[in-house]
Amino acid sequence: MADVSQSKSYQYVLLAVIALCTVGVALAQIFHPVNTVSKAPQSVLPLAKSKQIAKAGIDRLEGRKARDGRLSVYELNERFSKIGYELDPVLNGQNAVPRVFVRSLPYDLSMLKQAEERKSMFFRTLLPLVLKINEEILANRAKVWALRHRLNIGLELKAEDRIWLDAAFSRYRVKPGKFDTLLTKLDMVPPSLILAQAAEESGWGTSRFAREGNALFGQWTFNPKDKGIVPLGRPAGKTHRIKSFDDLAGSLRSYIRNLNSHKAYAPLRQMRKQMRRKGQEFDGYRLAGTLDKYSERGEEYIVSIQSIMDKNDLRRFDGATLDDTDLNITVDRPLI
Description:
Strand order of the largest sheet: 2-4-3
CATH topology of the domain at 54-128 and 188-331: Lysozyme
Shape: globular
């Protein structure tokens, strides 16, 4: 009987120990769960860490840490390949340009040894953004025409339309009611001209300003409220900086608005107006000939821009169109 009693006692103790262990494991799982569930891939990649990169310098240690949120050439090319995005079918008119919008150029673009590969990546990255911004401009232009027509036939505008129209006049530095002047300024810029200037000003996307601040066009700013990068070797006492942007779209919009509003580029706008009046396609090569005031280099700058257009046959880009399929993919890690 003693042996049986001891055996039962042993079993009770063993069961108690097992129960305690089970409870302990359960509590451990609750308070310190093991991460065994794989995360679903993000449909929108994180925004490029432009502020950290601009502050630290993309090639320094801190800059390298910040740039880890951006795509490499290989990664971006892989994404383009998955959707069948190549330049030749687009330029030959066989394919439309996919709505894939990239926030920043690949951080290692300058490491591509083959110039043609670097140019292809540069053009494929910027072209969808250029076409999208021109699309937006033409939509705004159509809205101005529609609102003008309503006023001409004696109809009142809705409050939100009046506010929108006032903002458009202000944005393009036009006196309210001067519709002809506004429509002269509010118009698209040919992709050939945009891409040629972006290539020239940013060293095909490899300049420090393009890499650290998405600054494709080297626009100066004296406004302390603007984001900007101090140029290396800036003379003492000077305060100008190169305006930086959260994404490439911001840089492109700022550049196009500059061409469309600054008094120095009135000749470009007048030539474009004449082309539109005659029903001609906008000729980026001819429009480039009006930009003698864009750079201190004057005529030499114009020759350089037109040379880029010729050597890379950029006029073919002027016929490119965005795909009607509303994918609106935004690639971040370099805005996708």
